[in-house]
Amino acid sequence: MTKMKTWLSALLVAQLALAIGFYWNTQQELQKSLPKPLVDISWKKVDRFVVGDGNQQVALSYAKDSWLLSDLGMLPTVDGNAEQLLEKLQALQTSWPVASTQASHARFDVTEDKLQRFVAFYHGDELLGKLIVGSSPGLKKLHVRMDGQDNVYSVDLELVDMITASQAWLDNSLLKLDELVSIQGADYRLQKQGEDWVLQGQNNVQGLELDSGKVGDMLYALKDLRVRKLVTDMPDLAGSGYAQLSVETDQSEKPLIYQFYMTKENCYVTRNDYDAMFTIDWGDYEKIAAMDAAKLTVQPAANQESSQEDNSNEQS
Fold this sequence. Notes:
Pfam families: DUF4340
Low-confidence stretches: none
Helix content: 25-40%
Strand content: 25-35%
InterPro entries: DUF4340
Protein name: DUF4340 domain-containing protein
Structural class: alpha+beta
Strand order of the largest sheet: 4-3-2-1-5-6-7-8
Largest sheet: 8 strands, antiparallel
Number of domains: 2
Number of helices: 6
Radius of gyration: 33 Å
Shape: elongated
Distance between the termini: 136 Å
């Protein structure tokens, strides 16, 4: 009887140990399967990231409280675009993997040689992590894995979120100005006095009335000048139209120097605070660069009659 009790007690202990072990293993597996950050890096340290597709890539660096195109002279990017991408990637969570072997990576386009996108995160030159993005299993879904790991996951993400063209990141309003106070052209100087603008220049324009319409068009076009794209291949500017403006705003410590060019194909602009050339609309070129003292003023009646007679003679 005593032996039977001993045997039953030992069996009970073994069963308890087995139950505890099973519970512990189950909890461990559950913990492993619980969602956790997919891109598990120190996000506070990220000050540069690179987005690529195997053919082209774009690099962005954080400086001066904003994200800049570090491979393009630190030109500004569209406000909020970089933050939105990083927030989406930071929010990605792991789930049950669709594959967990290295042999499966090619099938989901998540290898170094076969991928749709990659996003590499840096602190200075230190690589913090790299997300490899592959095929799509469905609408707004993509297969991804972290470099150095075998698990492949299906996450809510789109390729359009990860732009690899530098031009698409460029802030086209980077030449936008604060309040203008003066504009210096080849033969005139427009100076703001109170709420009005006055023309200063050579003797032939002293006392002439400003053409408020043309001056207004010029100020509006210059203040809100938008670039079309960054020029990557320098054009042939021999014989092109040319104008230079020196512009001051209420925020500028020194004048901003604009140089405008016009060819048969495009209109271009540079500004001394950016080491780059941009294309602009022909209409903006006409309103800004094509202006001179004569065009900015209301011509005396005698000059207008003479001009009309000249036009009449040319037509006849």
